[in-house]
Amino acid sequence: MKNLFILDHPLIQHKLSLLRDKNTDTKEFRELVSEISMLIGYEVTRNIPLKEVEIETPMGIARTKVISGKKLGFVPILRAGLGMVDGMLKLLPMAKVGHIGLYRDPVTLKPVGYYCKLPVDASERDIVVLEPMLATGGSASAAISFIKEKGVKNIKLVCLIASEAGIEKVTGDHPDIEIYCAAVDKELNSQGYIVPGLGDAGDRLFGTK
Ligand code: URA
To answer: Does the annotation mark 200 as catalytic?
Structure first.
């Protein structure tokens, strides 16, 4: 699948295994989510443009490269996406952060937005949507639609674990979106949890269960 990037770097895979372990406690879980997000961020930013500059070293002038002022924004989907923000910001501290909250309507089962605050200049930015667990894909797809409605042209989706169904949903609704993840799991259970997955990412991040 041309828009799906499964990141098989040994560090990412090792940390993901620790993250999946039910005995990993909240503190370690949070640290691992942050570290994996940073490592994925390294891949997501592989093609951001550079420009040449001259830098004076203690020994002379170096013609070298810096990021060319490309504007980025991170948009975590509440609440578990919050756990991925600081890892991404460690790499790109100048990026702005928006937030999107959605709930599932109990009757239609469709995602409904209850909160959406994006950077004012979102339409000029490349936006990276953060959703640790791409399960049914309904929330991620709806979040991407909201962001597109604000005029954003370039959107990527970053997950830790994606289900096959979630990938199908997002690529079906948004064929232009690149998805980055550390693993793809086959199954979803009847409550929409990824199996084997890692459980409820929000509860494990915030210690709410
Ligand atoms: N959200 C989670 O936190 N975990 C899943 O497995 C699916 C959705």
So the answer is: yes
- The count of structural domains within the chain is 1
Distance from C-alpha of 101 to C-alpha of 115, rounded to nearest angstrom: 5
131-171 residue pLDDT tens = 999 999 999 999 999 999 999 999 999 999 999 999 999 99
Q: Is 30 a catalytic residue?
A: no
From 86, 126, 173, 200, active-site residue: 200
Per-residue tokens: 128: 């990276």
Strand ranges inside 78-123, DSSP E: 96-97, 99-104, 111-117
- Domain that residue 155 falls in: 4-206
What is the CA(205)–ligand 1 centre distance, in A?
12
CATH number at residue 128: 3.40.50.2020
Which pTM was predicted?
A: 0.95
Site residues for ligand 1, CB cut-off 6 Å: 80, 133, 135, 192-194, 197, 200-202
